[in-house]
């Protein structure tokens, strides 16, 4: 778990901190092309605010299966 409140600003802080750490330790700007996570809008929006709008969104397969199983019940 990254955050208890799961708000855009929480994820923005997380992704921004990660980006800064990558720059500090690798001396290169991290430019991800993919985001693998659940379907939470806060994660997507936090990611967009730090990195860019041009990326592929991949939903975690475990979350997809869980959502399908919940709809069947």
Task: Give a verbal description of the structure.
This protein has 73 residues and is mainly alpha-helical. 56% of the residues lie in helices and 11% in strands. It has a two-stranded parallel ribbon. Strand 1 (34-37), helix 2 (41-50) and strand 2 form a beta-alpha-beta unit. The longest helix has 19 residues, at 8-26. The radius of gyration is 14 Å and the shape is elongated. The two termini are 26 Å apart.
Summarize the structure.
The chain is mainly alpha-helical and 73 residues long. It contains three helices and two strands, in the order αβαβα. Helix 1 crosses helix 2.
Question: Descriptors for this entry?
Answer:
single chain; 73 residues; mainly alpha; two-stranded parallel sheet; 3 helices; 56% helix; 11% strand
Strand content: 5-15%
Bin the helical content.
55-70%
* Unreliable runs: none
Mean of the pLDDT scores?
91
Rg result: 14 Å
Main sheet?
2 strands, parallel
First-to-last CA distance: 26 Å
H/E topology pattern? HEHEH
Number of helices: 3
Net shape: elongated
Strand order of the largest sheet: 1-2
Oligomer: single chain
The number of E-state strands comes to 2
Question: How do the strands and helices of this protein lay out in sequence?
Answer:
Elements: H1 8-26, E1 34-37, H2 41-50, E2 56-59, H3 61-72
Parallel strand pairs: 1-2
């Amino acid at each position: 778990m990254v955050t208890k409140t799961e708000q855009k600003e929480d994820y923005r802080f997380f992704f921004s901190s990660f980006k800064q750490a990558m720059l500090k330790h690798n001396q290169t700007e991290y430019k991800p092309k993919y985001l693998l996570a659940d379907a939470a809008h806060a994660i997507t929006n936090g990611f967009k605010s730090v990195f860019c709008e041009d990326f592929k969104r991949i939903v975690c397969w475990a979350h997809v299966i869980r959502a399908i199983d919940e709809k069947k019940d």
